[in-house]
Amino acid sequence: MRADAILETRGVTMRFGGVIALENVDFRLENDELRCLIGPNGAGKSTFFKCLTGLLTPSEGSIYLQGEDCTGIHPHAVARRGVGIKTQVPSVMNTLTAHENIWLSARQAQSSREANRTTQEVLERLDLEDIATDEVATLAHGKRQLVELGIVMAGRPSLVLLDEPAAGLTGEEVERMIEVIHELNRDAALVIVEHDMHFVRSIAQTVTVFHQGRVLTEAPVEAVMADPAVRDVYLGKRA
Amino acid sequence: MLRETLLSAAVGLALLVVAPFLFDDIYTLTVLTIYGLLALSLGFIWGFGGILCFGQAAFFGLGAYGFAIASINFADPWVAALVSLIIPALFAAALGAMLFYGRLSDVYLAVVTLVVTLILFKFMNSTAGSAYKIGDARLGGYNGIPGFDTLTLPWDSSEYLINEYLYYFCALVLLLAYLGLRWLLTAPFGRILIGIRENELRAELVGYDVRLVKTLAFAIGGMLAGMSGMLFANWAEIVTPALFSLSQSAEIIIWVIVGGAGSLLGPIVGAFALGALKFFLGQQTLVNNLFVLGSILVVTVLFLPRGIVPTLTRFFKKRRRGAKAVSQGKRGRSSRRRLRHAR
Predict the structure, then answer these.
(1) Does the beta-carbon distance from B202 to A151 stay under 8 Å?
(2) What is the DSSP secondary-structure string of B41-66?
(3) Residues of A with CB below 8 A from B209's CB?
(4) How far is B247 from chain A (nearest CA, A)?
(5) How far are the Cα atoms of A205, A211, A223 from residue A43, in angstroms, in the given order?
(6) Residue B35 — left, alpha, or beta (φ > 0 → left; ψ -120 to 50 → alpha)?
(7) Minimal Cβ distance to A79: which of B188, B191, B205
(8) Per-residue pLDDT tens digits for A12-54
(9) Residue A15 CB coordination number (10 Å)
(10) CA of A236, closest CA in chain B: separation in Å?
(11) Is B210 on the interface with A (CB under 8 A)?
(12) Is the CB of residue A203 less than 8 Å from the CB of residue A178?
C-alpha cells in the first residue's frame, strides 16, 4: 500500500443472508481528497458508508485507516482515529443546546478549557452563535444539519464521512453547505454520499459510482457525467 | 452553578436537621431517608443515563446481605459497611458490562435486571440449610440473617448507631450522595452520560465508548442502592429475602416516576411521600395499600408525566419568566412615560 492513503478498502464484501449488498469493493482515498459516492438506490453506497464508520462489519475484506487495519472496529474507535461522521438524518442530542452538542464532541479529545475554546471557534465559523443556547430540538432542519457539521468539526478530524449532507436543505442552505464542505476539505479528506448531482458537481473532483454492490466506475466528475454506462444506470439519458 | 449547589446543600441540610423535630417517629423518618437514597440511585441511572433498571432491589438486597454477612465475619462493622458497598458495585459493574457490551436493548435490559432480582429472591429463600453459609454467617433462607452487629459510633465502639444517631447518619449519607451526583452531572462524565441518554449513536460517532460510560453509571447506581441496603440492614437489624422481592423493585420505580425521573430531587421526594403514605395506610385496613399506590401511579402518568418535581420546577420557572417579562414591560412603559413628560 502506498503511504499517503488516508483510507483504503480491499475486497470489501457485505452479505445479509443470501443478499450481497457489497461485492469486492476496492477503494482508495488520498490525503486532502474530496470524493463523492453516487449510485442508484440499493447500489450499496450506504452499506459501504456504514462499513467505513464501523456500524457494520464487512463479511470479507479489509478497511485501512492511515495504513492501519481497522476492519470491524467499534464506531467509537473509528471516531478516535480522527474520523468525523455525519449521518443522513441529523443525529444530534435533541434536548441539549447547540453549544453542548458541539462541546461534547470537542471534549472527547480535549481538556474542558480547550473544548470551550474549540466550541466557540466552531460556533463562529458556522455562524451559529445566535442559536448556541437554543435546544437543538427547536431548530429548523438546515440549522440542525449545521450543528451536526459543527459536531464533526469540533473533533478536528483528518477524514470526514458525510451521508447526504444536502438532503432537505433550501437552495441558500445548500450554498452554505458547499462553503462549509470546502472549508472542511482544507484540513481533512472527505467522502460524501450524495444524490444531488448539482451538489456533487459543485464540490467533487472525483466521483465513485456504485451499482449493484460494486464500483462501476471512478473518474473525474465531468467524465462520470459523460459516461454512457453511468447515464444508463443512474443519471438517465437527459443528464 | 456553585451558588445553586451551595443553596441546595444548605436547604437540604436544614430540612434534614429540622425533620426529627417536626415528626415524632424517628424510626419511620430514618427508613424514609433510606428509601430516598434508594430512589436516588435509580433516578440517577434512569433519569440521566436512560437506563431503566427493574432490578434496583437486587443491589439493595446485596448491600444489606453483604453488610450482615461481613459484619458477622469481621470484627469491625465499619469494614462490613465498606464491603457492603463494594459487593453491589462490583455486581452492578459485571451485570452492566454483560448487558451493555452485549448490546441489549432497553426492553431486554429491563427484563434481565428483573429476572436477576427474582433469581436472587428465589435463591435466598432456598438457603435455609446449614450448608448455605459464608464464613460464620448462615444465610438462613426465608428467615434471613438476624443478630449481626450494626454500626457503632466512630468515637465509641461500644455505642451502637441507633435512633437519632442513625437518622442523622442516614440523612448525611443522603445529602452527600445527592450533592455528589449533582457535582458528577456537571462534570464531563455526567454531561457525556446525558449526551448518551439523548443520542447513543451520536455519542459513539464522536468517539465515546457508550458501553463503558453506561457500565460505570450503572455501577455507581448499584453502589448507591447497596449503600441504602446497608443502612436498611442497620435500621431493621435483620435482612430477609423480601429485600429482593418483586414488590420492592416495583415500589422503587413508582417512587421515581411519581417524584420525577428527570431530576435528582424528584426520586427523593417520591420516596418520602409514597413511603410515608405506605406507613400511614399500613395502620388501617379500610383501603388496600397497593391499590392506592397503583392509583397514584396512574394519575401521575396521566396528568403529571414528568413527575411532581420537574412539573413544579417548570411551573415556577415559567411564572418567574412571566413576572420578569411583565416587570420589564412596566419598566419600559414608565421610562417611555418619563421621556414624554421630559419632552
Answers:
(1) yes
(2) HHIIIIIIT----TTHHHHHHHHHHH
(3) 74, 76
(4) 33
(5) 21, 5, 20
(6) alpha
(7) B205
(8) 999 998 899 999 999 999 988 999 999 888 889 999 999 999 9
(9) 14
(10) 35
(11) yes
(12) yes
Q: Distance between CA B62 and CA B44 in Å, rounded?
A: 19
Enter the C-alpha cell of residue B80: 462490613
- How far is the alpha carbon of B320 from chain A, nearest alpha carbon, in Å? 19
CA distance B64 to A213: 58
Q: Do B194 and A76 touch (CB under 8 A)?
A: no
Residue with cell 430512589: B39
Query: Could you tell me if B227 and B2 are in contact, meaning their C-beta atoms sit under 8 angstroms apart?
Result: no
Of B192, B201, B209, the CB nearest to A104: B192
Determine the pLDDT at residue B14.
Answer: 87
User: Taking CB atoms and an 8 Å limit, are B202 and A75 in contact across chains?
Assistant: no
pTM of the model: 0.89
Using an 8 Å Cβ cutoff, are B31 and B251 in contact?
no
DSSP 8-state assignment for residue B285: S
Q: Is A74 helix (H, G, I), strand (E, B) or coil?
A: coil
B1 contact residues in A (CB cutoff 8 A):
none
Verify whether the Cβ–Cβ distance A108 to B208 is below 8 Å: yes
Q: Which residues on adjacent β-strands are paired with residue A13? A: A60
Chain A residue numbers touching B191 (CB-CB < 8 A)? 100, 103-104, 107
* CA separation for the pair A239, B20 (Å, rounded): 82
* Chain mean pLDDT for chain A: 90
Per-residue tens of pLDDT for chain B, all 343 residues: 667 777 777 888 888 888 888 888 899 999 999 999 999 999 999 999 999 999 999 999 999 999 999 999 998 899 999 999 999 999 999 999 999 999 888 889 999 999 999 999 999 999 999 999 999 999 999 999 998 999 999 888 888 998 899 999 999 999 999 999 999 999 999 999 999 999 999 999 999 999 999 999 999 999 999 999 999 999 999 999 999 998 889 999 999 999 999 899 999 999 999 999 988 888 777 888 888 888 999 998 899 888 999 999 888 888 887 777 777 776 666 656 665 665 4
For residue B339, what pLDDT is reported?
A: 54
pLDDT of residue A42: 86
Q: Which three-class secondary structure state does DSSP give residue A228?
A: helix
Q: Between the CA of residue B89 and those of A80, B92, B197, B200, B224, what are the distances in Å?
A: 29, 5, 21, 24, 8
Q: Answer whether B207 touches A (CB < 8 Å).
A: yes
What is the C-alpha separation between A222 and B254, in angstroms, rounded?
A: 64
For chain B, first and last CA: distance in Å?
45
Residues from chain A contacting residue B208 (CB–CB below 8 Å): 76, 108
The C-alpha atoms of residue A229 and residue B323 are separated, in whole angstroms, by: 68
Question: What cell does B97 get?
Answer: 458490562
The three cell numbers of residue B106 are 432497553
Instruction: Name the maximum alpha-carbon separation found in chain B.
Output: 98
